[in-house]
Design a protein that fits this description.
By secondary structure, the chain is of the alpha+beta class. The protein has five helices and five strands. The strands form two sheets. It has a three-stranded antiparallel sheet. The longest helix has 15 residues. The radius of gyration is 22 Å and the shape is elongated.
Length: 119
C-alpha cells in the first residue's frame, strides 16, 4: 500500500509514503527543558515553506510533547527476602545505582519534525 501511496494525488499521503520508503524518517530532539516558542514557530514555518504545505497540514510533519519513563514505579513492587528474614524493596536493597535509578521518574520534552529540515 505504501508503494502505491507514493504516487497518490493526496500531497500529505504522497509525501509521508515517499519519506518512509526513502527512510527519511522524522528527527526527534529530547530536552530536559521546554523548547522555546521561537524554535517551535520557526520549525513550523520552515516546514510550511520547504514542503509547500498549509498551517493546518503542518500537524502531519511536526509534533511536540513530553514523555516519561517510570520503569519501576508501579503498584506491584519487587520485594526480596534478606538473610535476616526481613522483606525489603529491591530498590532499597540494591547497592547498584542503575537499580535505584529505575525507581525515579524521568521526564523529557520532545520535538519531532520531518527530516527534510535541519536545526
Amino acid at each position: 500500500a505504501i508503494k502505491m501511496w507514493q504516487n497518490h494525488e493526496d500531497k500529505i499521503l504522497n509525501t509521508l509514503s515517499n519519506c518512509l520508503l526513502r527512510r527519511k524518517l522524522f528527527k526527534v530532539k529530547l530536552s530536559n527543558e521546554e523548547f522555546s516558542i521561537e524554535l517551535k514557530t520557526d520549525l513550523k514555518s520552515r516546514l510550511e515553506n520547504e514542503l509547500g504545505i498549509t498551517k493546518s497540514e503542518v500537524k502531519y510533519f511536526y509534533d511536540e510533547g513530553s514523555i516519561s519513563n517510570s520503569a519501576y514505579l508501579s503498584q506491584q513492587r519487587i520485594y526480596i527476602l534478606t538473610k535476616k528474614g526481613n522483606i525489603i524493596d529491591i530498590a532499597d536493597a540494591a547497592d547498584l545505582p542503575n537499580i535505584q535509578a529505575l525507581s525515579k521518574i524521568v521526564k523529557k520534552n520532545y520535538i519531532c519534525w520531518a527530516k527534510n529540515l535541519t536545526l
